[in-house]
Amino acid sequence: MTAEPLLLRPLKMRDLTLPNRVVVSPMCMYSAQNGLANDFHLVHLGQYALGGVGLIFTEAAAVSPEGRISPEDLGLWDDRHITPLGRVTDFVHAQGGLIGVQLAHAGRKASTYAPWRGRGAVPDERGGWEVMGPSDQPYSEALRSPRAMTAEDIEAVTAAFARAARRAEIAGFDAVEIHAAHGYLLHQFLSPLANTRTDDYGGAFDNRVRLLLEVTRAVRGAWPYHKPLFVRLSATDWAPGGWDEEQTVAVCALLAREGVDAVDISSDGLTSEQQITPGPAYQAPFAAAVKAAVPDLHVMTVGMIDTPERAEGLLQNGDADLIALARPLLGDPHWTQAAAQALGVPLDLPAPYGRATRTT
């Protein structure tokens, strides 16, 4: 290790300075009612501020009711959602932390059960709803067949993302991430496997990326200039004929021109036919390809990065600028504190936790 590990070094994006490079990856908790955050979200997200992470992201917050993955998803489609989320951001800021919100629309993968409540599509009588997508093909036989979106639907979705970004600012968030990965609506438009349209939003690469660029432009216009904007992408569909690494690099260059500050590079989720062999940091090469090709962007990697040494190695190799963690932080909200001890550097924590020591 170097004398100054990069994992615990600050990173500045616009007017926001992250105290370190550890980021809480968006993780769906399926614990909201009517999109409203509650005490669960306050405690769940607040614990990471006490643990010293550099930036916390909420789970996916739907920009419209029909954009929810499940009936229990978090939302930002209504002004009523602002105050409950403001409780969370106020607590995080009081502990010296930073927090962002992920804005999302599930498209054809909407109206599904939370993992521990069932499988497949939620029927109407249990609170389900009609879903839509770029085309009328379902993700799988277990999910609803979507309605192909009209031009009016596309305009409405773009406007919904912008309105949600404005609500995020009022709620006190420090960053916004547009969710264009994991087989949800914006990813569906990107991939030829889900998008078989023949209009200006389908077919050639320039058409398939059009909605993402329009949403990004709308969100950047609604989101304060001094605050950073992230976009999460699936770098590959892991299936023949789908979205791939080359197209990811190309769209990242376009996103940089639209005022995006960082891309969050993940993968998969678009087709049930995907073939993946996961392993430690298996998605990092995709992030490295983007970082090498688009130097104007900060790049975040995620996926099976379980140890501080592995995270630090990715940063030292120049594969990424930020490390997003999901399961490691879910299992140990004080992972960052353990990382600081493992790498031999101090970590600023809220005063009540600053006296803690870690031996493992």
From TrEMBL:
<dbReference type="GO" id="GO:0003959">
    <property type="term" value="F:NADPH dehydrogenase activity"/>
</dbReference>
<feature type="domain" description="NADH:flavin oxidoreductase/NADH oxidase N-terminal">
    <location>
        <begin position="7"/>
        <end position="342"/>
    </location>
</feature>
<dbReference type="InterPro" id="IPR001155">
    <property type="entry name" value="OxRdtase_FMN_N"/>
</dbReference>
<keyword id="KW-0285">Flavoprotein</keyword>
<keyword id="KW-0560">Oxidoreductase</keyword>
<protein>
    <submittedName>
        <fullName>Oxidoreductase</fullName>
    </submittedName>
</protein>
<dbReference type="Pfam" id="PF00724">
    <property type="entry name" value="Oxidored_FMN"/>
</dbReference>
<dbReference type="GO" id="GO:0010181">
    <property type="term" value="F:FMN binding"/>
</dbReference>
<dbReference type="InterPro" id="IPR013785">
    <property type="entry name" value="Aldolase_TIM"/>
</dbReference>
<dbReference type="InterPro" id="IPR044152">
    <property type="entry name" value="YqjM-like"/>
</dbReference>
<keyword id="KW-0288">FMN</keyword>
<dbReference type="GO" id="GO:0050661">
    <property type="term" value="F:NADP binding"/>
</dbReference>
<keyword id="KW-0521">NADP</keyword>
